[in-house]
Design brief:
454 residues; alpha/beta; Rossmann fold; 14 strands; binds nicotinamide-adenine-dinucleotide; binds uridine-5'-diphosphate-glucose
Length: 454
């Protein structure tokens, strides 16, 4: 099938590459010339395991191309995926300007029946607005072409995006039930049929329910995390270990083990913005989502928990102290720094007078860029440095902080760490180590919900 992808970011690029992988003819369009230039030079602008290989294979087979040419983009695809960003607006609602611009770009050029697929995460009612934008452009041109807007929210996780896309838990398709909607549904069914060979994964529903399902999923996952973080903080007070508690409750199949890890807060481009957007949608309808307001408040507080623990241990003035930070990306296996808990944490340490030596296996370039945007020109920025080796960061530091659970941090050389740190102090925001093992190593270990400083 001929597919156009509008927006070649984390979702668009993975969607395009994976749809090419199963044999489709894919045209990826983006307004960002830098991104398209990198792709056309054979590179990949983001770090996502396995993605470079899929793109290279399909480029060589002539099944995927990248362009900033909007005319060619709209002409190409019978199915047009909109996968542009929907960042939070000032009031927390989803900013739909990029989605609607993409819709207008399609409407201004379409020359026959098109299926327009909302892949971006968008509030309930957006498909209707996309339809209106398309119809408005057609009317302006005095042209009449059939189209239907389908909601097909994406559930991939960064760091596992290719795997998630190729083996989805479910494919949600919200279609209208008029004639064009049924035609669109049949085309989408055909497009996704290779993913359903083992068992049927597609769930058909109305458009508004599909739009809502995406927010409900992220809100539920964020709720589990904030719930565990709140209990972890209590576990610290009462002297229980949240890791035992996690296993104890996760073994109940009604609860399950996933997304119960306490830590220094959830980040990323999705949970924070989608929780906010759902709260905002509710308030527009006169509803106060009490649970989700608490989920957000707990997460905001959780991003300060490591700093509080450090101040508790070392006193409120950190002038002259140096901290090694392992992990900058919002989660492992990505270079994405959007809403990464490392950002407020490092900013707070710098504000308290400390110096920070930061290390991440893949996010260093992106970290330099975002910390530059956040802090450049300030005295604090002078006290932040980036290291290319984790142990270079710890040499002579007053403590080590773990912020992202990269695999390479799971079994460090504790002897070397202890010898290098000026005091054997580890603050772990991701609960990577066993407190008893750390005690044996002679390292003072503070984690999240594992009891007070040991
Ligand atoms: N990142 C994820 O893990 C993930 C997962 C599921 C859903 N989503 C949702 O998917 C959407 C995209 O997220 P992302 O992380 O891929 O964003 P992103 O910022 O990585 O990519 C968006 C891309 O759209 C491009 N763009 C903006 N306006 C455009 C236009 N008018 N025409 C063409 N291109 C345009 C930008 O240049 C950018 O490259 C969001 O709604 C997000 O909530 C993201
Ligand atoms: O038990 C857990 C699991 C995750 N996290 C944190 O939660 C954040 C988000 O992690 P994750 O969900 O793995 O990454 P995302 O790539 O943001 O994926 C989420 O957001 C995407 C965009 O909407 C959805 O498509 C995915 O299904 C959804 O998992 C990260 O900061 C994690 O450190 C925890 O603190 N504890």
């Amino acid at each position: 099938m001929k597919i156009t992808i509008i927006g070649t970011g984390y979702v668009g690029l993975v969607t395009g590459a994976c749809l090419a992988e199963i044999g489709n003819d894919v045209f990826c369009f983006d307004v960002d010339e830098r991104k398209i230039a990198i792709l056309n030079d054979g590179g990949v602008p983001i770090h996502e395991p396995g993605l470079a290989e899929v793109i290279a294979r399909n480029r060589a087979a002539g099944r995927i191309r990248f362009s900033t040419d909007v005319d060619a983009s709209v002409m190409h695809g019978d199915v047009q995926f909109i996968a542009v960003g929907t960042p939070p607006d000032e009031d927390g609602s989803a900013d739909l300007q990029y989605v609607l611009a993409a819709a207008r770009a399609i409407g201004a050029r379409m020359n026959g029946f098109k299926v327009i697929v909302d892949k971006s995460t968008v509030p309930v009612g957006t498909a209707k607005r996309v339809s209106e934008a398309l119809a408005g452009e057609l009317a302006r041109r005095n042209e009449a072409h059939g189209f239907s807007v389908v909601s097909n929210p994406e559930f991939l996780k960064e760091g596992a995006a290719v795997e998630d896309f190729m083996r989805p838990d479910r494919i949600v398709l919200g279609c209208d039930d008029d004639e064009n909607g049924q035609r669109a549904r049949a085309m989408m069914k055909q497009l996704y049929s290779p993913f359903n060979r083992n068992h049927e994964r597609t769930m058909y529903m109305d458009v508004r329910s599909a739009e809502f399902t995406k927010y409900a999923a992220n809100a539920m996952l964020a709720t589990r995390i904030s719930f565990m973080n709140e209990l972890a903080n209590l576990a610290d007070e009462v002297g229980a270990d949240i890791e035992y508690v996690r296993r104890g409750i996760g073994s109940d199949p009604r609860i399950g083990y996933s997304f119960l890890y306490a830590g220094c807060g959830y980040g990323g481009s999705c949970f924070p913005k989608d929780v906010q957007a759902l709260i905002r949608t509710a308030s527009e309808h006169g509803h106060d989502l009490k649970v989700l307001n608490a989920v957000e408040a707990v997460n905001e507080r959780q991003k300060n928990v490591l700093v509080d623990k450090i101040l508790n241990e070392l006193g409120s003035d950190l002038t002259g102290k140096t901290f090694a930070v392992w992990g900058l990306a919002f989660k492992p296996n990505t270079d994405d720094m959007r809403e990464a808990p490392s950002r407020p944490l490092i900013a707070a340490l710098l504000r308290k007078g400390a110096s920070v030596r930061a290390y991440d296996p893949v996010a260093l370039d992106e970290a330099k860029r975002v910390f530059g945007l956040d802090l450049s020109g300030t005295a604090e920025f002078e006290r932040l440095s980036f290291q290319h080796d984790p142990y270079e960061a710890t040499e002579g530091a007053d403590a080590l902080l773990i912020v992202t659970e990269w695999k390479e941090f799971k079994s460090p050389d504790f002897g070397r760490l202890k010898a290098q740190l000026s005091a054997p102090l580890v603050f772990d925001g991701r609960n990577l180590y066993e407190p008893s093992e750390m005690r044996k190593q002679g390292i003072k270990y503070t984690a999240i919900g594992r009891g007070r400083v040991l």
